[in-house]
Design goal:
The complex is a heterodimer of chains A (about 100) and B (about 575).
Chain A lengths: L3 H7 L2 H29 L2 H7 L7 E2 L2 E2 H5 L2 H30 L2
Chain B lengths: L1 H21 L5 H6 L6 H12 L2 H14 L5 H16 L1 H7 L4 H9 L2 H34 L3 H50 L5 H5 L11 E5 L3 E4 L4 E5 L2 E5 L4 E4 L2 E5 L7 E2 L7 H4 L11 H14 L4 H4 L8 H18 L3 H11 L2 H5 L5 H9 L3 H37 L9 H25 L5 H25 L5 H25 L6 H7 L2 H18 L8 H9 L11
Helix pairs in contact in B: 1-9, 1-18, 3-9, 3-14, 4-15, 4-18, 5-12, 5-14, 6-14, 6-24, 7-8, 8-9, 8-18, 8-19, 8-20, 9-18, 9-19, 12-20, 12-23, 15-17, 17-18, 18-19, 20-21, 20-23, 21-22, 21-23
Classes of the chains: A mainly alpha (about 100), B mainly alpha (about 575).
């Protein structure tokens, strides 16, 4: 009986299923991260358009919309990227474990 | 004088690093991808250094000063592009182990002819992006030294071609990382020093309130080098070369070349094509119409976020990561480095509106980063800071231009040149790369000399929209969908390129500013062209099901299987 690693290397039907599962898990993770980004940053233009009153709020004398387009967005991008990177590496690691001990 | 010294020092530093790299650039693998043995931090700085171009260093602040806070979506999109790259492209692309975009297209879809299609698109996108870099170099050298436009174009073109031909990419990686820190230092230090010197933001009413920019207490003197068409937003008295005149609010006039004088407190006239807006509207990131309407903003975000992954000079750099996880780590660091840089252009846009209103009259708001320090702080302090921003601007052109040139020369020498005999002999490939370098620079340089009047942001926007509508769907579908075929990819790229270019060309031809939703979509067509490209790719691939690549399972394994399983020999 061949190991899961060999199944994958040979491209057998079982190997294909292993790979499909990994690709699907990675894609799901990426789409979740995209949704987090799209939901938070993607709704910003619409929010600023629908709520022009946001402009009257000020942070350190600068209107809130201008501040929002600065540090908060970049911190959010880095955070999403960092969490994604750790999760994606973890998915890879668990796949490696799955294949190494049957 | 100080500025010339600073520009010279930065350029010599780059050349020195580039030639130092020559000794390390021995084999073809070295020349093309720097042996893939560079740490994530070096790689991230190099990617950021290559990415931060004239559009970022000068263009964002200039566009913000001219059109308002809507321009600030650009840095958001430019940075978020790397998040999209991280989520969908970075690790699989590195694992697949192709050198260039045409390599990927041919290997993944098993169609040698697709390599040439992809190579042609690389040349178009890279060319569109190289022209504005050279143009920016010509303008900047003009501001700093008074040299004619062509001197900057030819000078920067020659230096960059030399560094690239001699050093290959190993040299370039260190040069690019160095350029990132030069640029960040050059935008961060003057911004902070000027804010401290001024004690905060001046002229708040013109920045955030109900006022238009006005001539300062000492009056405003503007040297008009050529006759300029301007609009007067309010009644104004003015004099050109001593000849006094009056204009009423709403008047559009052609001012003759000469010395324009505006008395203290006069609302400054604005060059045609610039909106005269009061501070409250100017500082609003989303407005009802024009270049900050919601449709325009979303389309712009789509183009920049998805276009980044399709820029040929960016993707090739991911192959210098040793493996997939390293590619991910590098990309996260890129997000941080870009975020740091992009905090500062907004400072120049704000201070420029208050302190250099003459740029509204001449329409040359792209020069605000270069002109602001001396306007805000007359004397030695301002001169030193201006030298710093000039050096940073030069680093911006040099780095992006050299990255693009590596891609263009690589594509010409490797993808389009007759391949016979070259495969076996790395030395032949290296020689061809060096021979192709000057040619890849000459064509964009000639175009930059001819097309002096074309807007920088227009060419850059075109390049991003094209990349988002061609290579982005090729990568996303090629990496994540088994069903993509070569013909589907080719038709999809053609459809995306046609829609994107058609929209922008039509906007150019009609010569109007975007007012309706339709206008906005023509000027910024990504919201239409990207879905069209995806739909055509998927549709044609489905009809073409019989021609799916035979080795598709092996390709998916190469793209997605983690390292350490001993499955595929590392390429």
């Amino acid at each position: 009986m061949s190991s899961p690693r060999d199944e994958l290397a040979e491209g057998s039907e079982v190997g294909k299923v292993y790979l499909r599962r990994l690709v699907r898990a990675q894609l799901l993770l990426s789409l979740t991260a995209l949704l987090a980004f799209g939901g938070l940053v993607g709704s910003l233009p619409l929010a600023l358009y629908v709520l022009p009153g946001l402009h009257r709020a000020e942070v350190l004398g600068v209107p809130l919309p201008l501040v929002l387009l600065g540090p908060p967005i970049f911190v959010l991008l880095i955070t999403i990227g960092w969490v994604y990177q750790r999760r994606a590496d973890a998915l890879d690691a668990s796949f490696r474990e799955l294949l190494h001990d049957p | 004088m100080i500025a010339i010294l600073a520009v010279g020092a930065v350029t010599l530093g780059a050349i020195g690093l580039g030639t130092f790299g020559v000794r390390l650039a021995r084999t073809t693998s070295d020349v093309f991808v720097a042996s893939r043995a560079i740490t994530p931090w070096w790689n991230a700085a190099a990617i950021s250094g290559e990415y931060l171009s004239a559009a970022s260093f000068l263009g964002i602040a200039g566009l913000q000063m001219k059109l308002g806070a809507g321009a600030l979506w650009l840095p958001v999109g430019f940075t978020a592009g790397y998040l999209a790259l991280l989520l969908f492209v970075a690790a699989p692309m590195r694992r697949f182990g192709a050198y260039t975009i045409p390599d990927f297209a041919e290997a993944r879809l098993e169609a040698p002819w697709l390599r040439r299609v992809a190579a042609a698109v690389v040349l178009v996108i890279g060319g569109f992006y190289l022209v504005p870099q050279l143009k920016g170099a010509g303008l900047t050298l003009g501001v700093v030294t008074g040299a004619p436009y062509w001197v900057g174009v030819v000078g920067v073109g020659a230096i960059v071609a030399l560094v690239v031909a001699l050093g290959g990419m190993r040299g370039i990686t260190y040069v690019q990382a160095y350029q990132y820190w030069v640029k960040t230092f050059a935008i961060l230090v003057p911004a902070c020093v000027l804010l401290l010197h001024l004690g905060g933001l001046p002229e708040r009413a013109a920045l955030f309130g109900q006022e238009l920019p006005r001539a300062p207490a000492a009056g405003l003197v503007v040297a008009l080098e050529e006759p300029t068409r301007v609009e007067f937003p309010r009644d104004a008295a003015y004099a050109v070369d001593g000849v006094a005149a009056r204009a009423e609010g709403g008047d559009v006039r052609t001012l003759p070349a000469g010395e324009l004088r505006l008395p203290a407190g006069t609302t400054v006239p604005v060059a045609e094509g610039t909106d005269a807006r009061v501070g409250a509207d100017w500082s609003r990131p989303v407005t009802d119409a024009g270049n900050a309407s919601p449709v325009f903003v979303y389309s712009l975000l789509l183009a920049t976020v998805l276009g980044t992954m399709g820029l040929p000079h960016i993707l090739v750099r991911f192959y210098t990561n040793p493996d997939g996880p390293a590619a991910r780590r590098t990309t996260v660091r890129v997000l941080g480095l870009l975020g740091l840089f992009y905090l500062f252009p907004v400072v120049y846009g704000l201070l420029g509106r208050a302190l250099t209103p003459e740029l509204y009259v001449t329409g040359r708001t792209d020069e605000v980063v270069l002109r602001l320090p001396e306007a805000a702080w007359p004397g030695l302090g301002g001169e030193l800071l201006a030298a710093l921003t000039a050096a940073g601007a030069f680093a911006a052109f040099m780095s992006t231009a050299s990255g693009l040139l590596v891609s263009l020369a690589g594509t010409v020498s490797y993808d389009l040149w007759d391949r016979r005999g070259a495969e076996a002999q790395p030395s032949v490939r290296t020689r061809r790369f060096r021979a192709a370098t000057p040619f890849a620079m000459v064509v964009p340089a000639v175009f930059a000399l001819v097309a002096r009047d074309l807007d920088i942001s227009l060419l850059v926007g075109w390049a991003f929209a094209l990349a988002a509508s061609t290579f982005c769907p090729l990568f996303l579908l090629g990496i994540w969908w088994r069903g993509l075929t070569a013909r589907g990819a080719a038709w999809g790229m053609a459809a995306g390129a046609c829609v994107a270019s058609g929209g922008i060309a039509l906007t150019l031809a009609r010569d109007t500013t975007a007012t309706t939703v339709g206008d906005a979509l023509l000027a910024q067509p990504a919201a239409v062209s990207v879905p069209v490209a995806f739909l055509v790719m998927v549709g044609v691939s489905r009809l073409d099901r019989a021609r799916r690549p035979r080795q598709v399972e092996a390709h998916m394994r190469a793209l997605h299987a983690p390292e350490g399983l001993g499955l595929v020999p590392p390429r």
